[in-house]
Amino acid sequence: MSAPVADPQAATRPTPSSVDVVVVGAGLSGMYLLHKLRGMGLSAVVFEAGTDVGGTWYWNRYPGARVDVESLAYSYSFDPDLEQEFEWQERYPTQPEILKYAQHVADRFDLRKDIVFRTRVVSAHYDEESRAWLVRTEHEDAVHARFLVMATGCLSASKMPEIPGLDAFKGETYHTAHWPHEDVDFTGKRVGVIGTGSSGVQSIPVIAQQAADLMVFQRTPAYSLPARNRALRADEVTAMKQDYPAFRQAQKESGFGVPVPLATKSALEVSDDERNATFEDAWESGSLVNLLTTYVDLVVSREANDTAKDFVHRKIRSIITDPRTASDLCPEYPLGTKRPCLDTGYYETYNRSNVHLVNLQREPLQAVTEKGVRTAVAEYEFDAIVYATGFDAMTGSLTNIDIRGTGGASLKETWSAGPRAYLGIGAAGFPNLFMITGPGSPSVLSNMVVSIEQHVDWVCDVIEHLRQQGFATIEPTQQAQDEWVDHVNLVASYTLYPTANSWYMGANVPGKPRVFMPYAGGVGEYRKKCDEIAAKGYEGFLLSA
Ligand code: FAD
Ligand code: NAP
């Protein structure tokens, strides 16, 4: 008799009936949370829809997927031994290397034994009488918890484009954020890629090397800067490992979670030659932030930003041989207002004879058909279509869950005009609910590991505070939340960010309210604010016995 086959859809372990803390998501946020909560002697369970840890780095397995913050900076700082022992290979590692790191962390801290994989949380309802959350999963299990922490990720609810016929296509269909675990081979195939954000920009050069023919469908061009990726040298790794405490401190105090020299000048006060030389150095450095941080006014002044825009346009035109393609790839919105990309050979790819660009602003996408993609001008036939169409960012992974707070109020409905959260961590009317890198915090405007660690530490400190002071619940006051949301909007209004149709603004999701969701005040300033609030006994929060 053959052994019984495990149900490939089933949860990997039983759900406990009651714990101190439920964590949703086992990416870098959920993993660190679990480790920290355990260290505090609390019982916790993590639910994860995937079959292993890593979150972003578990799901996004598309060809060319890489981090665009340097490995030595995009890594946990909470354990000095972990920091010293892990050996990063590349300046900007690939998805498999980062996933290996996440798996190493899971093994090292024995995390998997409290993670229920293959289990999506579908609802979380707060019960005022027992002052506990009742969390239900897709397998109809339920668990009671005093605290609920959403570590569901800002970029984990993937999105298909709103075009008719998505199911009609008879060839292979992929989304970059749900890439198969098996190898995908495009050799000899006609491939269409829809979308030219970071996922498109990273995957297009790699797919182009395999495919017989690659057609890229672009609605809005991205600003992409060369990564200048390379293997890490032993001497630089040693130097960083010796200097880690100071470097980590500098990360925490920086604007984007990446230490850079502070700009002192306006882009408009220097000569063209000086400015171009400065931009050239930044372009050569292979960094996501160096160009945008060269002058104090690039993110606040259109005129200043135009100097950087023109610089990148000249670079694009100098790389791409076909003038019309080059022109189509030049973005008109201000640099940095949609998330910039870091690439390896992106613009050069358009000089290949097997690569073609379709400008959807000239010929809008009409439908996916049995054979391929139809625009207003032509029908293009493919063997495979790759959707690099992004995410319902920052709120999608939260509003996909039926979260109900006091009086049965739904988070989704409460946020129907845009997300409202105090510090991006808690929401009025939702006691003992915390969000890691939620809307209203620097989150996606930063090296996210820095922001994740800050939020996890802060949330765990709150829980410890409640325990020590004998409080049962905490939630933001309506007033503090309103003031914080006003502050987030005010800071955004000083910048150029709201001028672009970005996912930061919810503009990529039809019907989503246009609100600038992350906090643009900078990682260091935000941390100070959070620390001050904690030092004042969690000012702006209502703590109840
Ligand atoms: P995630 O990694 O998104 O993990 C959330 C987890 O929650 C997922 O595994 C998901 O399956 C799970 N989940 C969600 N909802 C449910 C549910 N209802 N039930 C159960 N499980 C659920 N940031 C940077 O700072 N630098 C970079 O270079 C960078 N590169 C990126 C590249 C890509 C392709 C993407 C998509 C994002 C990138 N990011 C980058 C952002 C990245 O998401 C964060 O850096 C970080 O990995 C987020 O970790 P997290 O744990 O908060 O969220
Ligand atoms: P994205 O930046 O939102 O890009 C999606 C692309 O699809 C855009 O070009 C978008 O055009 C296009 N698109 C969406 N809907 C469309 C439609 N209906 N018709 C035509 N085109 C459509 O998503 P992403 O590339 O997956 O990246 C999301 C974020 O994840 C990044 O900004 C970054 O924060 C992170 N990320 C980082 C890296 C990295 O380098 N480390 C890699 C991947 C992702 P519009 O611009 O016109 O909306």
Explain how this protein is built.
The chain is α/β, with parallel strands linked by helices. The chain has a domain at 18-158 and 393-544: 3-Layer(bba) Sandwich (FAD/NAD(P)-binding domain), CATH 3.50.50.60. Helix content is 31%, strand content 17%. It is built from 15 helices and 20 strands. The protein has helices at residues 28-39, 56-59, 80-85, 95-108, 198-210, 234-253, 272-285, 302-319, 323-328, 346-349, 396-399, 411-414, 448-469, 478-493, 523-535; strands at 18-24, 44-47, 115-116, 121-127, 132-137, 142-150, 172-175, 190-194, 213-218, 224-226, 341-343, 355-359, 365-368, 372-375, 379-381, 384-387, 402-404, 433-435, 473-476, 541-544. Strands 1, 2, 3, 4, 5, 6, 17 and 18 form an eight-stranded mixed sheet that branches. Helix 1 runs parallel beside helix 13 (448-469) and helix 13 (448-469) packs parallel to helix 15 (523-535). The structure holds flavin-adenine dinucleotide and NADP nicotinamide-adenine-dinucleotide phosphate (NAP). Flavin-adenine dinucleotide is lined by residues 24-30, 47-50, 55-56, 58, 60, 65, 67-69, 74, 120-121, 151-156, 199, 397, 401, 436-437, 447-448, 452.
In short:
This protein is 31% helix and 17% strand. It has 545 residues and is an alpha/beta fold.
Give Rg in angstroms: 23 Å
Q: Please, what is the oligomeric state?
A: single chain
Do you know the CATH architecture of the domain at 18-158 and 393-544?
3-Layer(bba) Sandwich
CATH class of the domain at 18-158 and 393-544: Alpha Beta
Helical content stands at 25-40%
What is the 3D shape?
globular
Strand content: 15-25%
Number of strands: 20
Mean pLDDT: 96
Structural class: alpha/beta
CATH homologous superfamily grouping of the domain at 18-158 and 393-544: FAD/NAD(P)-binding domain
**Unique ligands:** flavin-adenine dinucleotide, NADP nicotinamide-adenine-dinucleotide phosphate
* Low-pLDDT windows of residues: 1-5
Largest pleated sheet: 8 strands, mixed
CATH topology of the domain at 18-158 and 393-544, by name, is: FAD/NAD(P)-binding domain
Please give the alpha-carbon distance between the first and last residues: 59 Å
Given the structure, what is the number of helices?
A: 15
